[in-house]
Amino acid sequence: MIKAKLLLLSLLFFSFAVNAQQVFSTQKYPLVDFRSPLDIVPPALAGSFGELRPNHFHSGMDFRTNQREGYPVYAIADGFVSRLRVQNSGFGLAVYLTHPNGYTSVYGHLSRFNSKIAQQVKTLQYQKKSYEIDTFPSNLLLPVRKGDIIAYTGNTGSSGGPHLHFEIRDTKTEAIINPQLFGFEIPDNIPPVIYAMYTYRLNHLPFNELTPKQYFQVVGGSGNYALNQVNTIHLDGEVGFGVISTDKHNGASGTNGVYSIELELDGKIIFTSAMERFKFENSKAINSHIDYPTFINTKRSIQKSFVDPGNPLGIYSNLVNNGRIEFNDDKLHQLKYIITDGKGNKSVLQFKVQSDPKAVIKTPDMATGIRYAYGNVNEFNNSEVKVIFPKGTLYNDLNFQYKAFPKPAGNAFSAAHQIHNSLTPLHLGFELWIKADSSLLKYKEKALIVNSGGGSQGGSFDNGYVKATPRNFGRFHIAIDTIPPTLTPLNISDGKNMAGISKMSFKLRDNLSGLKSFNGYVDGKWILMEFDAKTASLWHTFDGSIAPGKHSLELIVSDMKGNNRNYSITFYK
Ligand SMILES: [Zn+2]
């Protein structure tokens, strides 16, 4: 009893200790309900929540696992397995647990499930005759207690090395929440590093690749930064700001994302972004959060401190005029960036701005185009092409540009169509119809749209056109895919004795439209073939269900355009 009281006291103290390092958040989260998903001490992060990744914010915490697989993964609290997912890419093997306090925890890139879950998954894979599954067990099927081993860490799916991807979600809304707000202790007393500051001459125009910007080198360290050899910046008119900043953790060599960015003007906050929570469907709006044209051209991620009108992210608060600042008096203004990591360590960058009409930098004139408002459905048509941008596609108003190009050499069944330019980000895909040459008719089932890099956009033939939904602007034309996937056996051949060999392995790749399905049959019965997209590996693990003797093996692999490859042999076991 006394022990229990002491534990309670220490837990309370723990929650105060965490509270002592306040980070900005709009809601309170329980600090004592969850244990760590791993027993690796001290815990270290290979990736933080909200970290900037290509086309998305990182949706969880990546725990380091010493470059190894197979560490036990523990249920962070009582609850039940509410979702089991197996994917060729993405999270690979993943477990979702729903807890009675209103939160769901997610564990991804696992090497294997615990034996009870593994049995459920395998049964379902055989029932559905599919390696990939996504199933939502009832709360009675697989209950868990805090500390139960649910799985083992791995490197499955789109993982760049062994680690545990861990998420916490709001069970009802499925909004993803920063796990650091729940008191997971990650040793870190190193404040964020600020590398550079930028000014953007917005001039009351939409932000785009023509917006004049100016780079300022930042010097300093240990939480205090200043502009290099610049006392006062002279600006005039409407301006926005941006920074490059990352975070470091104790004992971790890599960099992670920062938690919050605040910009103060003369002591008043005019912009806050905080990686508290976001919705999956808004994750692509990272391309509106950052200076996307600079990212495409240089791979540098400048976080803007002004918000595009079509940006749906809920990470912003304290906004004054969306972070756009008008400088038109001759007063000296104090600006201050306060950048905070998930543990509350802060770095500050201060500088002065004075308006000066001579310092105005005009935005270059846009080439003429059709003005599309970001909040509307917009449509473009000519005799060769039709484009529809659904509501919610654009982050800013756009001067839309279109240009036709002659039919490219090689695998092409239409002219090429330049649909605006690749420096403008899109939140949603847009509908694109391209008129097909009459020579396409005999291949119409094989038709798709590709971009100038040859990347498939998918698509299907529809009344003289091929229609697809590209997710980026670019140059597009119609191509065909008549080539089935390639399948290369690695350790099996016709007549081979496979006794004593634990699995049969293949490489499986497709050239254009992408893999649709793979199915294996032994003596006519479906067997589980597993596939890892990043290594193009396809395999079957012999689990004892194939008896010793002579057997037939048939593999059928198909791409998205119905091109099939069959592989039939006999083997001995
Ligand atoms: Zn991750």
Give an overview in words.
The chain is mainly beta and 573 residues long. It has 4 domains: 22-182, Glucose Permease (Domain IIA); 193-359, no CATH class; 370-480, Sandwich (Chondroitinase Ac, Chain A, domain 3), CATH 2.60.220; 486-572, Immunoglobulin-like (Sandwich), CATH 2.60.40. Strands 15, 16, 17, 18, 19, 20, 21, 23, 24, 25, 26 and 27 form a 12-stranded mixed sheet that branches. Strands 1, 4, 6, 7, 8, 10, 11, 13, 14 and 22 form a 10-stranded antiparallel sheet that branches. The longest helix is centred in the first third of the chain and has 19 residues, at 2-20. The N and C termini lie far apart (60 Å). Mean pLDDT is 94; it is low at 1-20. Bound molecules: zinc ion.
Task: Give the tags.
573 residues; mainly beta; Glucose Permease (Domain IIA); Chondroitinase Ac, Chain A, domain 3; ten-stranded antiparallel beta sheet; disordered N terminus; binds zinc ion
